[in-house]
Design a protein that fits this description.
CATH architecture: 3-Layer(aba) Sandwich
Strand order of the largest sheet: 3-2-1-4-5-7-6
Number of domains: 1
Distance between the termini: 47 Å
Strand content: 25-35%
Oligomer: single chain
């Protein structure tokens, strides 16, 4: 059984973030310079809202569109709009174009590592399919994925579309977690 109130959970509570997952994004942003002033961001799987909270602090006059199947997003800011939708059915026509697409979304897990990794990769494929139409040239995608046997083949595929693709496991990820993040920088024209 994992310790729910770990260091990052306590820190998130003290700093008034909605979830400990914010520190994963903060670490990636500090290392790769992902979130910038003026950006238009699509935040997929945005509930409960900690990534959105952090990005709102950094984008200045930019804007964020949050998408989640959960209909209870509580972020109140005129630079944020929320769409209750499934990423698998969303199109660029529904949402517009973005400088940055982030996704901390995850599928419902079954406990079967192979099945969970495949479902996670299918979700990530939908994120990148959407990015083909909704991400500007030179834009960035940051998305969580569970490690599995088909991940390297998928990474090889997306390397054709981006200037740099990195797999990154933040220190704030739980040690037992199979999650890793794909950071795809500089979308090619």
């Amino acid at each position: 059984m994992r310790n729910i109130k770990d260091h990052y959970s306590k820190k998130a509570q003290l700093e008034q973030y909605r979830a400990r997952s914010v520190y994963k994004l903060i670490e990636m942003d500090e290392k790769f310079g992902i979130v910038k002033k003026g950006m238009r961001v699509l935040d997929i799987g945005c509930a409960p809202g900690s990534w959105t909270q952090y990005m709102l602090k950094k984008i200045d006059r930019g804007s964020i569109v949050g998408v989640d199947t959960a209909g209870n997003m509580q972020v109140k800011d005129n630079r944020f709009s929320f769409i209750s939708a499934d990423i698998h059915t969303l199109t660029a026509a529904d949402i517009g174009v973005f400088d940055l697409i982030t996704s901390d979304a995850m599928p419902n897990t079954t406990g079967n590592k192979f099945s969970d990794a495949q479902n996670s990769l299918n979700l990530v494929r939908s994120v990148f399919r959407l990015a083909q139409k909704a991400l500007i040239p030179d834009g960035t995608v940051v998305t969580k994925v569970f490690q599995g046997e088909d991940l390297q083949e998928f990474i090889s595929t997306i390397k054709k579309w981006y200037g740099r693709v990195v797999l990154f496991k933040p220190r704030s990820s739980r040690k037992e977690s199979r999650e890793i993040f794909i950071i795809a920088l500089n979308r090619k024209r």
